[in-house]
Amino acid sequence: MAVDPIIQSLKGKLIVSVQSYIGEPLRCPETMAQMARACELGGAAAIRCQGLADIAAIRSRVEVPVIGLWKDGHEGVYITPTLRHARACVAAGSDIVAFDATDRPRPDGKTVADTLIPLKEEGVLCMADCATIEDIRRAVDMGFDIVSTTLSHGVAAVDCTMADGPDLPLLRQATEEFPEIPVICEGRVHTPEEARAAIDAGAWAVVVGTAITHPTSLTSWFKAEVEK
What are the start-end ranges of the E strands in 32-155? Predict the structure, then answer.
């Protein structure tokens, strides 16, 4: 498999997810752009972000690749759920578009392939957010440029605790089955040691979000330890 130079540049590197949630004080495109720039200065090889305004703001502020997605809703398939959402992410400035690659029903009634094929024809780099090894196998067969363990934890990142770690068993299985495919570890990577463990388990790159860019969660973890 030929690996695109953008994806090749991520090998062995850290990707930082810069996102905020509805109702939070940091939920502002300019704030997210500043956060992304700070992460770039710290050595992030790429930024993963969501929402068209955030994608555009971050793209204008950083030089590293931007992995864009559009969360629409809160249940089922809501990470870039349709081709329309994906194309909008590209128009906003995404170098790579991430979307849900599970086999769950999609809001437009179409399949994952119905979204992927037109994007590939348009030259868009695509990242498959997966929950299981079956999702990863299908994504590889379909021709995604990147596959990721993003959805294997089953809950939103904000609902995880510091004690929850990355899904290394799934990561190892995927990298053993597909040693030439860029498999990214994402989800519940909360310490530098866990990030290193993911690389050692074969990850092409590691995505860290909450532990770097979500001060509300970080504060709650410290509070829990101090007050227990």
Answer: 46-50, 66-69, 96-100, 125-129, 146-148
What are the residues facing 183 on neighbouring strands?
147
> Exposure string (b/e) for 77-113, b if CB count within 10 Å is 16 or more?
bbbbbbbebbbbbbebbbbbbbbbbbeeebeeeeebe
Calculate what percentage of the chain has a pLDDT beyond 90.
92
Q: How far apart are CA 99 and CA 103, in angstroms?
A: 12
99 in Cβ contact with 129 (< 8 Å): yes
Q: Return d(Cα 9, Cα 37) in angstroms, integer.
A: 18
Fill in the amino acid letter for 47: I
Q: Which pTM does this prediction carry?
A: 0.97
Q: What is the pLDDT of residues 37-58, one digit of tens each?
A: 999 999 999 999 999 999 999 9
- SS3 for 226? helix
